[in-house]
Write a structure and sequence with these properties.
single chain, alpha/beta, Rossmann fold, 2 domains, 9-stranded mixed sheet, 4-stranded parallel sheet, binds aspartic acid
Length: about 350
């Protein structure tokens, strides 16, 4: 177990125990006059802005990563580290809240949803659009509600046993979330899946959409991700040179291809030839839509039939964030490429529909 310093508040043997993991992000940033921009700050000082913590009716422990980051710097190493932190302390806590920058929160929540197999406790990501030190900050409500949801249970059963994002009154399945807004407070939306809870005066859980509580399955924490993946966003007028250079990247193992509408791409022979050559070399290509709603249906139009014939995998209604992290996870943990292709089309953590 890695030896992090953990500070505990409201020590009470009989209450629920929640671990808050601080990674950085706007939530804890301050304006640095020398560099004239927002930079991550030491979490212990941030707590001075949160006297409410003393009034919570659960035991709260806080673990801060040694180097708080702007989430634009998150990496596969940090995702694996977060998964290991939870694995090593899984039996000690009833729930986990991860404070994280909003920019890549949907990627991190997706990654953790694949790394933490058979999760039966809440892992809730949250953050803020304004730092905790500002009067109009959204940080306080986001954190307090995320902590409350992480500690919620009915008849001793935790209510949200999955990786989710709580932000601005909505609880969203982590691998369905997308950052949609950088100015307003409603930073996240849920793509192709209902919210898990709406929060107002009460927390209104949407039980049919929340993953069932399955405590008998042992938690399995995966320890490998393959970073040799890339995203190819198709655009009208894309040149053959761009596509052929892209697929020549050394070590490339997987590509998430963002296509038009219901999964359509140019049907020109040069384009399909590049894709065919890549799949013959063992590169896995997954088709996801550039639209924020709807799904990929390969073969619906002539412009996606060729992709189907080449063996491009349909990403159905998955987000790009979930698709790329699922690919990193599967290419890191499953050596058989044919199995990787089957699993890419199979829902593993509620990230896509069955059909
Ligand atoms: N750049 C920040 C981050 O993602 C933005 C935020 O936290 O909202 O770390």
């Amino acid at each position: 177990m890695i030896n992090y310093q953990i500070n505990t508040f409201n020590i009470n043997q009989n209450s629920k125990k929640i671990l808050l993991i601080y990674t950085g992000g706007t939530f804890g940033m301050v304006y640095d006059n020398t560099v004239k921009s927002l930079v991550p700050f030491n979490f212990n000082q941030i707590l001075n802005n949160l006297p409410e913590i003393q009034r919570l009716d659960f035991e709260l422990s806080i673990l801060a990563l040694p180097e708080p980051i702007d989430s634009s710097n998150v990496s596969t190493e940090i995702w694996l580290e977060l998964a290991a932190i939870i694995r090593d302390r899984y039996d000690l806590f009833d729930g986990f809240v991860i404070l994280h920058g909003t920019d890549t929160m949907a990627y991190s929540a997706s990654a953790l949803s694949f790394l933490l197999e058979n999760l039966s406790k809440p892992v809730i990501f949250t953050g803020a659009q304004l730092p905790i030190g500002l009067a109009r900050t959204d940080a306080r409500e986001n954190l307090i509600t995320a902590l409350e949801i992480a500690s919620s249970s009915i008849d001793g059963r935790t209510i949200v046993p999955e990786v989710s994002i709580y932000f601005n009154g909505r609880l969203i399945r982590g691998n369905r979330a997308k950052k949609q807004e950088s100015s307003q407070f409603d930073a996240f939306n849920s793509e192709n899946y209902p919210f898990l809870a709406d929060v107002g005066v009460t927390i209104d859980f949407k039980f049919p959409y929340i993953r069932p509580y399955l405590p008998d399955l042992p938690l399995k924490v995966h320890e490998q991700m393959n970073p040799h993946v890339a995203i190819l966003k198709i655009f009208p007028g894309m040149s053959a040179e761009v596509v052929s250079h892209f697929f020549k990247l050394s070590h490339l193992k997987g590509v998430v291809m963002e296509t038009f509408g219901a999964g359509n791409a140019p049907s020109k022979p040069w384009f399909l030839d590049e894709l065919r050559k890549a799949t013959e070399q063992g590169i896995v290509i997954m088709n996801v839509s550039q639209c924020t709603g709807g799904r990929v249906i390969q073969g619906k139009y002539e412009t996606s039939r060729g992709l189907q014939e080449i063996g491009v995998i349909s990403g159905k209604d998955i987000t790009t964030e979930a698709a790329i992290t699922k690919m990193m996870f599967l290419l890191g943990t499953e050596p058989d490429i044919e199995k990787v292709k089957i699993l890419l089309e199979t829902p593993l953590a509620g990230e896509m529909d069955l059909i």
